[in-house]
């Protein structure tokens, strides 16, 4: 999927169009249930309750410094690794260009792609930032988890296509964020930071 990982920040989005879907920074965090990985995905397996999450601009409004730094970390490289769930519940890893614009994190992919099929079946995903060169974690190791919501608004799709110019036909998903994690090493100390809409920012040093 063609597109830059660097886009409009949440602060700029309000002047350019819809900032978040479907609600603003004060939106409550609700849950949804999906089939478990031990059985069929059509609802016969045990349910798994997961937070619905919030849009990227909401996350950045609640924890500006941390979330902005994670977005900027994704922006250092265009290609990242997307984790989805296959129909049998096993994980699938594929490459993806993360795209931040209109105050949202977008997941774009070609129509007919396996990862698109995965997300239509079970919207849970994890996006891991390109680690970059070296092994010292000097740039930080970041990942985002959440739900991928299919975008069906034709006006939004046209606006996105006009700015990104992706190969067509394409699928577009808006990320509802349930967790953001950053791991970094400073002076031989590993610092693990995690943010969740219902719990805020937590920092652990090891």
Automatic annotation (TrEMBL):
Residue span(s) of domain Pyridoxamine 5'-phosphate oxidase N-terminal: 69-180
Keyword set, alphabetical order: Oxidoreductase
State if Oxidoreductase is listed as a keyword: yes
Stretches the record annotates as Disordered: 1-47
| Bias (Low complexity) ranges | 1-15
Q: Could you tell me which InterPro entries the record lists for this protein? A: F420H2_bilvrd_red/Heme_oxyg, Pyridox_Oxase_N, Split_barrel_FMN-bd
- Zinc-finger keyword on record: no
Judging by the UniProt lineage, the source's domain of life is Bacteria
Q: What is this protein called?
A: Pyridoxamine 5'-phosphate oxidase family protein
Native species = Streptomyces catenulae
Q: What is the lineage of its organism?
A: Bacteria, Bacillati, Actinomycetota, Actinomycetes, Kitasatosporales
């Amino acid at each position: 999927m063609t597109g830059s990982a660097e886009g409009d920040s949440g602060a700029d989005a309000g002047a350019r169009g819809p900032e978040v879907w479907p609600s603003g920074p004060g939106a409550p965090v609700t849950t949804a249930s999906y089939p478990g990985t031990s059985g069929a995905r059509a609802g016969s397996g045990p349910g798994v309750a997961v937070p619905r999450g919030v849009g990227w601009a909401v996350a950045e409004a609640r924890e500006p410094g941390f979330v902005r730094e994670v977005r900027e970390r994704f922006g250092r490289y265009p290609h990242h690794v997307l984790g989805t769930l296959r129909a049998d519940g096993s994980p699938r890893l594929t490459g993806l260009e993360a795209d931040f614009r209109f105050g949202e994190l977008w997941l774009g992919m070609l129509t007919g792609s396996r990862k698109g099929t995965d997300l239509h079946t079970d919207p849970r995903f994890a996006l891991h930032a390109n680690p970059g060169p070296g092994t010292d974690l000097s740039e930080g190791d970041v990942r985002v988890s959440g739900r991928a919501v299919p975008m069906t608004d034709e006006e939004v799709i046209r606006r996105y296509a006009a700015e990104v110019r992706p190969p067509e036909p394409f699928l577009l998903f808006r990320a509802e964020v349930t967790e953001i994690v950053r791991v970094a090493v400073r002076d031989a100390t590993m610092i693990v930071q995690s943010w969740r809409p219902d719990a805020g920012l937590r920092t652990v040093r090891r």
